[in-house]
Amino acid sequence: MKKAISILVINTNSSQSMTTALGPILEDLLHPGLLLQYYTAPSGRAPPSVDDATSSVLSAAHTFEDLLPLITEGKDGGRTHDAYLVACFSDHHLVGMLREHTSKPVLGIFEASIMQALALGQPFGIVTTGQYWEGALTAGVQRIFGSADMGGAFMGVQSTGMTARELHEIEQSVVAEKIAAATSRIVSKGARTIIMGCAGMSGMAEAVRKGRGGVDIRVIDAVRSGVTTLEGLVRAQIQ
Question: Which fold has domain 110-222?
């Protein structure tokens, strides 16, 4: 019997509650050939939420420092993983940093969800948290994929005005209302595939659908995209 593929899901902020919330959302993806393990950035060093350029850099630095002994080949104390998922919806520095130190696949949920959106063949947009991310994610699309509008496929980014932590800390009816409103705006611009642009939004697809205004849309959960894409990458490799 082949060993199960092990993917380490990396929460780059120090909020353990956000890591814990991912388990039930990804549970239906599990099978005997797939093992998901979770990591939370170090408390007291990494920021509790990644909301801007400063917290993004700090989260990458402290998470990398903590993870390096684990991911370095031959120095992980037997805790080998087959792939690493950076569960922060951004053009996060940690993705490139980890790739420099392991031959195992490393993927960010930002990249994974956009690749899946493109595969669906419909104009897509991103619903995210704070306004900072409207510009930052658009710039990330251009850097990674070489185009600001993806040949007309990318309809842009709409923010809810909340931080990642607030997604789980404020009244959920308010959260749903803000997500629905942002969805309505991006749908009005022509998006027919909506990416939930924050790991903290995982499991909130129903709030996205409330904002579609009767338009037929598809909703992509970025963390689920990352897991399924990484599993496929590992299985596709020729040993």
Answer: Rossmann fold (3.40.50)
